[in-house]
Amino acid sequence: MGPGKPIHIRRDSTWNVPEPELVLVLSSSGAVVGYTIGNDVSSRSIEGENPLYLPQAKVYDGCCALGPVIALSEGPQGARAIRITIARDGAVVFSGETSTTQMRRREDELAGYLFRELSFPAGVFLLTGAGIVPPDDFTLRAGDVVRITIEGIGALENSVAGDS
User: Fold this and answer.
1) Does 54 score more than 60 pLDDT?
2) What is the DSSP string of the chain?
3) What is 16-159's CATH number, 3.30.1330.10, 3.30.230.70, 3.20.20.70, 3.90.850.10?
4) What is the pLDDT of residue 164?
């Protein structure tokens, strides 16, 4: 989904969370050509039932938002603050912050793993992993508004749709 478009949560999941992520924009050769923001919505109750259910928990209509722009790469990125707020009925119910300095793997290492046995003739978006996740007692609800900001890129804001 793009900026301002609704993200979805699965009807068959009781625990759904957003995952704010730096996204690497990779060329067809695996080179980092830019960056954007990603919201990788996860259905934790499905994921927790069995590790083999991870595809169902992570890949479904409306499960991911990207944007608002692609910031072109000028070499390896420096530290960028990543922030998330979730508003419900106009009040902030969760907020968190981390930094890209907390990433465990380098950009080229992540791209290398992805391109090891896969090809992407038109390039690909690679979500790098979440450093902020709401607590176990939190779940997204229809009408929530998720706002993710990454320093130097901008803000990605999406509401949660009522039905997926």
Assistant:
1) yes
2) --TTSPB---TT-S-EE--EEEEEEE-TTS-EEEEEEEEE-EEHHHHHH-GGGHHHHH-STT-EEEEEEEEEPSSS----EEEEEEEETTEEEEEEEEEGGG-SS-HHHHHHHHHSS---TT-EEEE---S----TT----TT-EEEEEETTTEEEEEEBPS--
3) 3.90.850.10
4) 47
